[in-house]
Amino acid sequence: MHCNTEVFVTMNALLFGTVLQALRREKIPYDTRQVPTGISNRGGNMAGGLGECANFNVLFYVYVPKKMKEQAQEAIASAQHEFSNQRY
């Protein structure tokens, strides 16, 4: 699969999952990437990472084929609306 257009970035794992479900529902192929962003992941010393919550230090990226960018953006907007109406 050749997905090279970035359509979504978040640090919220629940929202990321909701977006992926929406893309699957619409049968839009996608690639993902997860990038740790915490100080402990940048070569910092152990003390520098104290108090960090590793669950909130990841950027989640979603990529789709260029020709499906518009369709993906519509599905993502719908997923974000759905997510904002949920109660956790």
Distance between the termini: 34 Å
Task: Kindly provide the radius of gyration, computed on alpha-carbon positions and rounded to a whole number of angstroms.
Answer: 15 Å
Helicity range of the residues? 25-40%
- Strands across the major sheet, in which order? 1-3-2
**Are there runs of 5+ residues with pLDDT below 50, and where?**
none
One letter per element, helices H and strands E, the order comes to: EHEEH
Strand content: 15-25%
Largest sheet: 3 strands, antiparallel
Helical element count? 2
* DSSP strand count: 3
Query: Judging from the principal axes of the Cα atoms, what is the shape?
Result: flat
Task: Give the rounded overall mean pLDDT.
Answer: 85
Which structural class do you get from the secondary structure elements? alpha+beta
Explain this structure.
With 88 residues, this protein is of the alpha+beta class. Helices cover 33% and strands 22% of the residues. The protein has 2 helices and 3 strands; from the N terminus they run E-H-E-E-H. The protein has helices at residues 13-25, 69-84; strands spanning 5-10, 31-36, 58-64. Strands 1-3-2 form a 3-stranded antiparallel beta sheet, covered by helices on one side. The protein is flat, with a radius of gyration of 15 Å.
